[in-house]
Amino acid sequence: MTNAKRGRGSRHGVYAGAVAALGFALSGCGGGGSGAAGSSAATSNESAADPPAASSNAVTLNWTPPTENTNGSPLTNLSGYNIHYGTASGDYTQTISVSNAGIATYVVDDLTPGTYYFAVGAVNSQGTESPLSSEVSATVN
User: Fold this and answer.
1) Environment class of residue 71 by beta-carbon count within 10 Å: exposed (0-12), middle (13-18) or buried (19+)?
2) Rounded CA gap, 75 and 10, in Å?
3) Mean of the per-residue pLDDT values for the chain?
4) CATH of the domain at 77
5) Structural domain count of the chain
6) pLDDT tier at 33 (50, 70, 90 boundaries)?
7) Are 8 and 50 in contact (CB under 8 A)?
8) Alpha helices in the chain (DSSP H)
9) pLDDT higher than threshold 60 for residue 40
């Protein structure tokens, strides 16, 4: 399976809202997506993601990068994200590491038809992952 990517703290309070507004926008070829807002620790700078573009056998994930730790201090050591996904809710059998904190869109491609469930965690420079975002799903036809 190939994956194409596109887009642009210490333990003292793992990142706000995992990935601040993981009000994920999802798209799957011919399928609908369902999303949820970020985790309960999300900050007030959250905003909904732009509407995604559908493509064949792919799901596009969009998020707003976090800017604060859960303790309210500025997040200065964000190094990337881990995208966890699988074909059963809560059972993430695949992980994609995105080592560029500036990326806020990722295309998971070469997916076979079916429903996929996604959650994202922010990763700091020490390799510590935040709690996962709320789960979202998309169906690829």
Assistant:
1) exposed
2) 9
3) 71
4) 2.60.40.10
5) 1
6) very low
7) no
8) none
9) no
